[in-house]
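hey m, so remember when u said the tokens were messed up on ur end? i reran from scratch. heres the input so u can diff it against urs
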Amino acid sequence: MRENRLRTLWKAGKAAINGWLAVPSGFSAEVMANQGWDSLTIDLQHGVVDYAAMVGMLQAISTTATVPVVRVPWLEPGILMKSLDAGAYGIICPMVNTRDDAARLVAWTHYAPQGTRSFGPVRASIYGGADYPEKANSTVVVFAMIETAQALDNLDAILSVEGLDAIYIGPSDLSLALGCKPTFDDVDPKVADAIKHIAERARAHGVVAGVHNGRPDVALARIAMGFRFVTLSSDARILASGSQQLLTAMAAAR
């Protein structure tokens, strides 16, 4: 089965640098994948990407060594299984708030006897290889998002679920849940403390910690804190910020 480079990096104690895809385009996904990201996450929750567009984007990413990851819209078995069948090598699931939520997530993303994922890897076996059915459980990476006060209260219980590979912090939703202004980077002290606590507890349980970031300096600081999966910006934000830089440089001509 094709290697999952996320697992290889983590086994070596290294952090994976993840990009974010909100533009529903195979071409833009291909351009991003050819820049050298360790992984790229297609966002089905908050972006404007639908399932058909996602498949084309997965195909585009597959032309490179970049690991294809999908953030599903919700904890729901249908979209989890269809995303995996399409060839996602990582799944990020939002709003996992309890141990039971985490257990369902693991069950729905793993074949029996570990889980209850239905069999039908129509594209996954093309991307992953003929032995995908035998090795998918130990190759695909599953993230539970920790982004609510309830999830914080249940953190150790969530992290104790066997088969959960990683957690992923959405700083904006976590900030809102803690009564603070939603932001990625310059979070309020209460949120900063929560992020540090989550990283520490994940490490104690042997679970990889991931987090969303807007700036490289923040991502580097969080790697130093122990995070091993850090997202930087998104294709849409990069397009906007790059345009703004060019237009700022040309402002004198107006």
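this time it looks ok to me. The two ends are 56 Å apart (CA to CA). if urs says something different then somethings off w ur setup not the seq
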